[in-house]
Amino acid sequence: LDADFLVIGSVDSAYFNEMKEVGLVAFRSNMELKLVRLDTGEIAASMQVEGKGNGFSRAKAARKALADAADRITPGMRDAIAAAASAQKNVELVVHDIPNFRRGSDLEAGLRELVGDGGVRVLHQANRLSKYDVTTPDGSRSFARTLDSKNRMPLEIVQVTPTQILARYSPARAVQLST
Fold first, then answer.
1. Distance CA 96, CA 38 (A)
2. How many CB atoms lie within 10 A of CB 178?
3. Predicted confidence (pLDDT) per residue in 10-27, tens digit
């Protein structure tokens, strides 16, 4: 599982009132959610909403109250996830298929040129694979676009998450950059 965030929470629904003459039952619900950043355990967002539901049975009124709470909280949680994801500044860059140590060193020098000396930390360097911790001002998606832009780096971006970029060293792009 490759996840950056976890949404946890609780929900309950309770009887509120009844109009006996028409058989209409009212329920209220309460939903509380927290967005947890998995890399740090930090609570990135927390929200609570109340839902209302009416029906001709207790079960139907309770379901409507729960659905109302879910409908109310969904847009806010979507926005919180997007904001938390774009706020990521430390990005793990994993590059595979690096042909040799010299090309890996050239790649590291290029990264340092892009973000500054203090913004790149080598986490792992081995035959054909290197892993870097890169501090970026704009987060992973923007940094991936910078890496992928022409005349920047000999990399093909394979996958981007809020905390990680997976890339493949591209000899063809390396040749293009050297000419």
1. 25
2. 7
3. 999 999 999 999 999 999
